[in-house]
What does this fold into?
Amino acid sequence: MSAPQRKKPVSRTRSKRAKISRGTGREEILTEAMKLFAQHGYEGASTAEIAAAAGLSQSVVLYHFISKENLWREAMRGLFAKVNTQSLIGQDSYKDLDVIARFKVAIRQFAHLSARSPEFARAVTREGMAGGPRLRWLIEDLSPPIHDVFHRLIEEGVAVGALKPCPPGHTTMVIHTAINIIFLLAPLAEIVTGESSFSPDVVERHTDMVLDLLLTGLATNPVAAMMPVPKRASKPTVRRTVARKPVKG
It folds into this structure.
């Protein structure tokens, strides 16, 4: 009588595929898609590479997202949601603050959220450089909840005289760029400063510096620094020396 055959152990790959067949794996794919699209851009990241990074097959990616374009859009929605500061607006402690204090709180929260999700700034920068329909979709469909918080604060600050007149769109872009520069260029920042851009202490100091630059400026006397140059001093005065003729004796 022959010995009963032992069942072969189910491999980890087969086990994972079995789970995928029940509809799992979506979050793993999105997590890797956010990283790879931010690092390599839309054209530079393939669904095959994203699937491999998630430990899945390309067919699973297409099962969940149908196409690369759909996957990119879902990844971008995820990134923008990670840095959305809209949750501040409904808090009573936030509503009770004056406009400058709310401005500071919003910037500080945006800085901390951006430090946790540096892929956001990288993805936006890549699409901002490339231009085209994908960038327009990001700005028109995903940006408003993030930008509106700052737009409203800037408009209110100008209206009550707490802020100098400034275009909300341009000012918001300056805020986002200033906050994200050390996360966007983290390897460079680490060489220059000798510190990790994502250290909590560094994030706090960087945010403090951005707030100081935005609200008080670099000059010790901003009012004097912004005074127009007097007209008489606008051009250097050139004195001409006229040679005198010798006087005959």
In short: Confidence is low (pLDDT under 50) at residues 6-13, 18-22, 232-243. The domain at 22-79 is CATH 1.10.10.60 (Arc Repressor Mutant, subunit A). DSSP finds 14 helices and no strands in the chain.
